[in-house]
Amino acid sequence: MIMYMNIVIASDLHLALTDKSQLEELFMTIQENRDHLIQYLSWVEGMTSLEPLAAYIDQCDYNYWAGTDISFVIVYQEKIVGRIGLHYINRHNRNGAIGYWLKKSVEGKGIISACCKKLIDYAFEKVGLERLELKAAVQNQRSRSVAERMGFQQEGIMRNAEIVNGTFNDLVLYAMLKEDWEQARRDEIHAI
């Protein structure tokens, strides 16, 4: 079982390390947003009952202890509204990837941007990464906008990189270096 970890973002918004106590609420959030999520996320198709989600949470727990993944649920106004995490952490090369999803009814409130900022800080300051990647389907403009707002640099298009609903999607590869993030944070402070 994963130890409790909580990252406070605002009085009504925090990240909680993914664990089995969230299983039913997380499953209901996925089910209620299935049509919205299945457009860009290949794993949604397989989440048809509690069992595959429970197995996924077990894998999150294993990956956390192996040091390759840190997975959080996003809790807004005391309800699970999505997930965000650091994935594919490579300690030797000090890099990883960030991924997220959010239920449709809370989009446009700045939740993902606020969560990304905190998680990027965490990745560079606490985990010790030097590079973060973010991939988004070419047609997923909302996710691409988040990457660009955060200051991720587009490095290229990965053709036919992911199958979603039986169709290959091209993915835009974005990256953020620690030095870029630190400069952006300094610029943000000086702009105030």
TrEMBL record:
InterPro entries (alphabetical): Acyl_CoA_acyltransferase, GNAT_dom, Ribosomal_N-acetyltransferase
Gene source species: Sphingobacterium hungaricum
One annotated GO molecular function: protein-N-terminal-alanine acetyltransferase activity
Protein name: N-acetyltransferase
GO cellular component: cytoplasm
Ranges for domain N-acetyltransferase: 28-178
